[in-house]
Structures are given as C-alpha cells and as structure tokens.
Amino acid sequence: MNMPITQGIHHIGLTVSRLEESAAFFVALLGWKEVRRNEGYPAIYVSDGYVMVTLWASKEPPPNPFDKNKNVGLHHLAFQVGSAADLNGVYAKLVASGVPIEFAPELLGKGPAKHMMCYEPSGIRVELIWPGL
After folding, report:
1. Is 105 exposed, middle or buried (0-12, 13-18, 19+ CB in 10 A)?
2. Mean pLDDT of the 106-128 span
3. Which tens digits make up the pLDDT trace of 16-67?
4. Distance between CA 45 and CA 57 in Å, rounded?
5. Ordered structural domains, the chain, with CATH
6. Using the 8-state DSSP alphabet, how is residue 31 labeled?
C-alpha cells in the first residue's frame, strides 16, 4: 500500500483584491492572529493556530468576479468551528459587520453537522462548519 507523501496543509495562499480588508475579515471577525507582513510583495499572513493563510495583494483588479459554477479554481475555503453556538455567534458577528452571507447556519445534509457560507471582502467564498461531533 502506498503512503501519502504529504502531511496535511502547511498554508493556503490566496490572491486578494482588498488586502487590508481581507486580513481584517480573518483577524477582527474570525479571531485569527496576524503572523507577519511582507510589505515588498505586499502580503499579510494570518493564522488560527492550525493553518496559515497567506493573503497576496493582486497587482490588478480581477477582470470578472469568480463564478463557482463556471471557473476552474478555488470553489471555497471551509474552516471548522468548535460548536453550534460558535457557528451561530460568528454568523451574528458577520451579519452585524455587513459581510455578504450566501446562507445562514443550516443543517448539512441530515445533520447533526451545520454550516454557513459567506464572502470575505475580496469575494472569496468561505464556509464555516461545525461537524456535529
């Protein structure tokens, strides 16, 4: 039997059109920490203590917004939360902050897992999921 050569995710690199606002989404709204900045690129590195996300500033605005049904590329990012209460709490925080919400917390399939979908400031779809365990 072949064993995977990889050992999980080290980091995810995302090109964003609104660098500061995208970083604030992770830090101010999701409670992540800013790890460091690279002013030369520019980039901001953020982490929840489990995974790091590198946010790279795009050099030009995207010609068209990403369409999850037509474009090849990132469909969405999914981050796990610790409880149904955490999911509901972050949903309320995102709504109060004006974050675009695709759908509010709902059962995933027949449950007990629940999830929601929103958009960070550069338009990347972000799923927050409680696995129901």
Report:
1. buried
2. 96
3. 999 999 999 999 999 999 999 999 999 999 999 999 999 999 987 666 676 7
4. 11
5. 11-59+75-130 (3.10.180.10)
6. -
